[in-house]
Design brief:
By secondary structure, the chain is of the alpha/beta class. The chain is 43% helix and 25% strand. The chain has three domains: 3-93, Chorismate Mutase Domain, subunit A; 101-192 and 281-381, ACT domain (Alpha-Beta Plaits); 196-271, Periplasmic binding protein-like II (D-Maltodextrin-Binding Protein, domain 2, 3-Layer(aba) Sandwich). The protein has helices at residues 3-41, 48-60, 67-89, 97-104, 124-132, 144-153, 172-181, 215-220, 222-228, 238-247, 259-264, 312-322, 355-367, and strands spanning 114-118, 137-141, 158-165, 169-170, 184-192, 196-199, 210-213, 231-234, 253-257, 268-271, 281-288, 299-305, 326-334, 342-349, 370-381. β1 (114-118), α5 (124-132) and β2 (137-141) form a beta-alpha-beta unit.
Length: 383
Amino acid sequence: MADGDLGGLRERITGIDARILALFEERMKAVEEVAARKAVSRQPVLDAHREQEIADWARGAVPEGLGAPAEALLRTLTRLSRERQYEEVLPLDFLWDLGRRIRTAPAAPPRTARVAVQGSQGSYAAQAAAAMYPDAALSHAPTWDAACLAAVSGDADLAVLPIENTTAGTVNEVYDLLLKHDLWIVRSATAAIRHCLAGRPGARTEDIRTVVSHPQALSQCAGTIRRRGWATRTCENTAFAAAEVAASADPSVAAIASREAAAVHGLVVLLDDVNDVDCNRTRFVAVSPTLAIAPDADRVGLVLKTPHQSGALASVLSVFADRGLNLAKILSRPVPDRPWEYRFYVDFQSPPRDPQAMRALYQFEQELPFLRFLGWYREEALE
């Protein structure tokens, strides 16, 4: 086919597209009228039965072979129409509690005088908390759950917890604790993690047979451990591992921990940088029983559950795309009491109280069987 013939076909298609857009505009005006009536009568925007009727009609209204594309086209059109309805209804819904909480949230928690961390002095969480809140006193807890309880009870104003590592992945237990204790993420910071092999004074690298550390740290050093032939033993924290080795009389046992933890517990560094990759980083979050949204917040965290049906997750992801919201993370976690059903932990990027983000949150809360807003917070890198 000559270029001229192709150009003529493109012009024809452009003309067809122009007519489609004119009809699209006409449809959206009708949709706005529907939204106004639903707002008055407080009917839900989503009418799944009506949308299925439209999809079924589309499949049968075109020649054989075009049924599936026609259905997909009208499903997309009904989704966009529904999003337009939410834009119309949202300003009239004065009872939307999450929206009120977001609009009225302070820029910072009421106090940050005392911060709880899991682990003793020299732990990575303690180092991150000290960098994030240099004027706060640190409260050391034996477990992540205990650190969360300190924040909930008022024994601490915040807790700083690891939530994700570039090598070992997400710290799933921390996400579960945010739901369990109804805590909000108010700040996030990423720190470089440089593990060392720390032993008792007089120990030699070639004598080490067993290494002790937190499971995440052991995972981050799995290649080194395998090459060296070390056995592993887990404990609750890398700094606790250093303390355990310091209390042991066995020179063949060493800790995988930070240099700071080694120094605190009187250990010597036998090997530096035993993590498998140089760019090993952990993201820590500060969590509070009070929602706060900083003026420079740039990330939103959600936990959501979709209906247990085909296309449900794709529909949710389409809302992010339609609203121009960039997904930073998506993770699935099993629902404990519902076998083979999952919740999704989702992070997306957005300036605070962005209208498109607010519309997406409103739509999700109206349509999904479960939505938990985790926070709207600033993400930063620690030196």
